[in-house]
Structure formats: structure tokens, C-alpha cells
């Protein structure tokens, strides 16, 4: 996400930022404590991905965008109280045993 | 109210030096009741209007404060109206957070098209003032 210098954002970057905005907006409708937790998880997740993923890896970013949109829809449900991050990144091997 | 105070101030130099501030104010409030005063009170307005188009200093200050908080900047780091978010170390995700923080603080909603045009504190403050005046 180093493109804020020239303010020339690609379509995909705009989609990512729009999704991020959507998450922060959805978090506003939750009680304060849940909201803080949601914000920190969402922020950490976006930042982690922005550093780890090659910005030319369009397929994977598109997949994450789709996944994020679904998660956002779930978060918008008034019954959803929180969010937790599932580490399914390749570097993480804890989730393999199931 | 601000424009009335403004016009009364700028009228003072035009009247004779003997006029005191108090009598100048009384004069204005009296004249505003009559219709003849229109030509008088209109004259100083254009100059005032140009100033109110730029962002208000208090808005700029508030934006600076929020930006500082959002980016966790040390207190010795100067943040002014000309400060660019990217120069302060903000990436595009930070900029989204800043805009969201401003929305909450000022009770406004920034459209996404507008959000992407904001790159300095002054940009943000000008947009906020515009949105606030539209809301009012």
C-alpha cells in the first residue's frame, strides 16, 4: 500500500480501501468493546496482507476481496458480535491438524 | 451573526474617527431594522465571504489533532495545514482511518470519491467545512 504518495490508486487498491472502509463502518454499529476488538483485528489483517502479499498477485488479492466482502456481509448482521482472525496464511502451519 | 459583527467592524474605519465602537454597534443594529441599510451592509460582505470559503482555523486545528492521534505522532512533530498525510508517514489504510475518524468527529459522511482527493490537512478541513455548511 505504498501508493498514497502520488494518489494514483489502481482499481484494485480502491476496492481494497473501499472494503476497509466498509469494515470500519460496520464496526461502528457494534458496542464499544466489540468495536475496538473488530477494528484491531480488521486493521491488523489488512496491514499484514498489505505487507505479505505481492501487489501483482491479482488472483489471490481478488480471492481475498471476495472473502472479505462475504465476511463484511456477515459482520453487518446485527447478531454478529465480533470477529476473529483465522490464520490460514502459508507461513502458518498450526491449522494443518484437523 | 458573524457577518453582522464583521460588517460593523469594517465600517468603523469608514465612519469618523470620533465614533466609538459601542455607538458603531448600536448604529448597525438600528440600521438592520430599516430597509435603507441594505446598501450599507452589503458593501463589506464580499471581502468577508472570500475568507469564509477557506477552511476555518479551528477546523484545521481539530483535523491536525485527529491526524496526530490517529498516526500516533510524537508531540514534537509539527502538523500544519500544509502537512501531507503521506509525508507524515500515513499509508493509504491510515488515510482511510483518518477520514473515518474525521467523519465521526464532525458528524458527516464523506463520499468515497471525495475521500480519495484528500491528501493534506487543508484538503480535509476545507471538505469538512463544506459538508458541515451543507448539512446546516
From TrEMBL, chain A:
<dbReference type="InterPro" id="IPR008011">
    <property type="entry name" value="Complex1_LYR_dom"/>
</dbReference>
<dbReference type="GO" id="GO:0034553">
    <property type="term" value="P:mitochondrial respiratory chain complex II assembly"/>
</dbReference>
<dbReference type="GO" id="GO:0005759">
    <property type="term" value="C:mitochondrial matrix"/>
</dbReference>
<feature type="domain" description="Complex 1 LYR protein">
    <location>
        <begin position="14"/>
        <end position="74"/>
    </location>
</feature>
<keyword id="KW-0496">Mitochondrion</keyword>
<dbReference type="InterPro" id="IPR045295">
    <property type="entry name" value="Complex1_LYR_SDHAF1_LYRM8"/>
</dbReference>
<dbReference type="Pfam" id="PF05347">
    <property type="entry name" value="Complex1_LYR"/>
</dbReference>
<feature type="region of interest" description="Disordered">
    <location>
        <begin position="75"/>
        <end position="98"/>
    </location>
</feature>
<protein>
    <submittedName>
        <fullName>Complex 1 LYR protein</fullName>
    </submittedName>
</protein>
<comment type="similarity">
    <text>Belongs to the complex I LYR family. SDHAF1 subfamily.</text>
</comment>
<feature type="compositionally biased region" description="Polar residues">
    <location>
        <begin position="82"/>
        <end position="98"/>
    </location>
</feature>
<keyword id="KW-0143">Chaperone</keyword>
TrEMBL record, chain B:
<keyword id="KW-0276">Fatty acid metabolism</keyword>
<dbReference type="GO" id="GO:0031177">
    <property type="term" value="F:phosphopantetheine binding"/>
</dbReference>
<dbReference type="InterPro" id="IPR036736">
    <property type="entry name" value="ACP-like_sf"/>
</dbReference>
<keyword id="KW-0150">Chloroplast</keyword>
<dbReference type="InterPro" id="IPR009081">
    <property type="entry name" value="PP-bd_ACP"/>
</dbReference>
<dbReference type="GO" id="GO:0000036">
    <property type="term" value="F:acyl carrier activity"/>
</dbReference>
<protein>
    <recommendedName>
        <fullName>Acyl carrier protein</fullName>
    </recommendedName>
</protein>
<keyword id="KW-0597">Phosphoprotein</keyword>
<comment type="function">
    <text>Carrier of the growing fatty acid chain in fatty acid biosynthesis.</text>
</comment>
<comment type="similarity">
    <text>Belongs to the acyl carrier protein (ACP) family.</text>
</comment>
<keyword id="KW-0809">Transit peptide</keyword>
<keyword id="KW-0596">Phosphopantetheine</keyword>
<dbReference type="InterPro" id="IPR020806">
    <property type="entry name" value="PKS_PP-bd"/>
</dbReference>
<dbReference type="InterPro" id="IPR003231">
    <property type="entry name" value="ACP"/>
</dbReference>
<keyword id="KW-0443">Lipid metabolism</keyword>
<keyword id="KW-0444">Lipid biosynthesis</keyword>
<dbReference type="Pfam" id="PF00550">
    <property type="entry name" value="PP-binding"/>
</dbReference>
<keyword id="KW-0275">Fatty acid biosynthesis</keyword>
<keyword id="KW-0934">Plastid</keyword>
<feature type="domain" description="Carrier">
    <location>
        <begin position="57"/>
        <end position="132"/>
    </location>
</feature>
<dbReference type="GO" id="GO:0009507">
    <property type="term" value="C:chloroplast"/>
</dbReference>
<dbReference type="InterPro" id="IPR044813">
    <property type="entry name" value="ACP_chloroplastic"/>
</dbReference>
